[in-house]
């Protein structure tokens, strides 16, 4: 076989360099699309889990199997991919379907009551339990000890304990 000329080696190196540049460009073009797709999917999933489905009562939009819900999820993804803010999309959904599709109550009006009421009930229960325990120990006895109130019962208990010994 004839020895490879310098021009052929230079052409081969240039070809390999061109292939490497093309591969790098292809990877660089795909990575931002995947990152954008991941960001869109994350924001879409957050919306899907914060909104009840208008088509499947009692289910989140993320869980609704109806074709209308599929179409609505696709619309939300398209709006996110176009750069619309998630808060604006949620507001659009509430405007279109009403506040009944809110999965999480707002922190105003009745929604505020729904957020605060469990805390108030918990605090009142804890306070009642502490009051009960403080009152039950106010007589000086430790929990679990019996204090006979009738002298006849105390005498009978002593006699029966003496018989056992």
Verbal overview:
By secondary structure, this protein is mainly α. It folds into 2 domains: 13-104, Helicase, Ruva Protein, domain 3, CATH 1.10.8.640; 106-135. It is 67% helix and 0% strand. The chain has helices at 6-48, 67-81, 86-97, 110-136, 151-164. The radius of gyration is 37 Å and the shape is elongated.
List keywords for this structure.
165 residues; mainly alpha; Helicase, Ruva Protein, domain 3; 2 domains; 5 helices; 67% helix
Question: Quick summary of this structure?
Answer:
With 165 residues, the chain is mostly helical.
Ends: how far apart?
Answer: 115 Å
How many alpha or pi helices? 5
Q: What is the number of independent domains? A: 2
What is the CATH superfamily classification of the largest domain? Cytochrome C biogenesis protein
Q: What would you say the CATH architecture of the largest domain is?
A: Orthogonal Bundle
Annotation, overall tally of beta strands: 0
From the spread of the alpha carbons, the general shape counts as: elongated
Percent of residues in helices:
55-70%
The low-confidence runs, each spanning 5 or more residues with pLDDT under 50, are none
Report the structural category. mainly alpha
Strand and helix map with partners:
Blueprint: H1 6-48, H2 67-81, H3 86-97, H4 110-136, H5 151-164
